[in-house]
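quick one: S-adenosylmethionine bound model?
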Amino acid sequence: MNNKITTRRNKTLTLTQEELKMFSTKLVNLKNNQSVEINDIINKTVNNNLFEVIDLLPIQFADLIFIDPPYNLTKNYHGFTFQSSTDEQYLDYLRSWFPKVVSLLKPNGSLYLCGDWKCTSALQTVMNENLTVLNRITWQREKGRGAMHNWKNGMEDIWYGVKNHNDYYFNVEAVKIKRKVIAPYKIDGKPKDWEETEIGNFRTTYPSNFWDDISIPYWSMSENTCHPTQKPEKLLAKLILASCPPNGIVFDPFLGSGTSSVVAKKLNRKYCGVEMNEEYCCWAEKRLKIAEKNPIIQGYTDGVFWERNSSSIQQKLQKKSAFEDFLEAQ
Ligand SMILES: C[S@@+](CC[C@H](N)C(=O)[O-])C[C@H]1O[C@@H](n2cnc3c(N)ncnc32)[C@H](O)[C@@H]1O
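yep, here:
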């Protein structure tokens, strides 16, 4: 692609030195032996090493915990390199902090834990040791070049567990999926399980545990940052709408570029995240600031999740509803 066009369309978030200075003043730095009240950390980005502050955090404060830890891969997070290890060592690593994170979850709370095929058995083990596992979501994650001597990895796991399987929040109505109808079947001339609209024929369905409608953030998406393993806002939106009540609290112990806090804010939930890299924390703060004016979540329009590559339809819908708002205001 023409270089000028690429530069113009590149929406990757950046920070000036002044912004970095300004956003760093918004971060919370917890000190050893400090007693931490819930109000000290709510709607905040905590810039600390999780392992140094986890015992300070208030127990049972979170309705939903989203964990996207370093996977068992050697990965450079702008200065901090996580080293891959044996499966046993990775399991020991998880066991050293996972039960403590679970203690921060409310008795009726829910937790999601992300990983790839290689570390998934360790993830399943700690989930089973500490929670009731209700499901494993498979996210079809298409990125990268093919491997020459193996199958290219195209999926990730998101383990889903709760503290009490008799008492937990799950709002399936909030996470329905809208798909274009390929074979518009009718009975007595009427659509069977689908609707005819001005912008096309659609079916709205309940979601399964296989997610193939979410792209990884890339340079032309406004949610994109330079974080090496940023999760998509659409993915977090599904988890938060399904498993955190309105106004509830989302906690993320490995916040990265801030995706879970940003989406919680956009969806009127409270949030708290811990991240040890100061620049990532500042990216999160800038995204939170932008979210005040722009609460759009790409792929989630009109209260439903749209299949991939349907942005032109969603734009039509947004224009239509803006026009209706305009008429109403006249
Ligand atoms: C897989 S990434 C999370 C990405 C995040 N979900 C996002 O959307 O940007 C893991 C993050 O954990 C951070 N991290 C790793 N070990 C940590 C620790 N001990 N304390 C705090 N943060 C840590 C890394 O810097 C990295 O940003």
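Residues 3-171+208-303 form a domain with the Rossmann fold fold (CATH 3.40.50.150).
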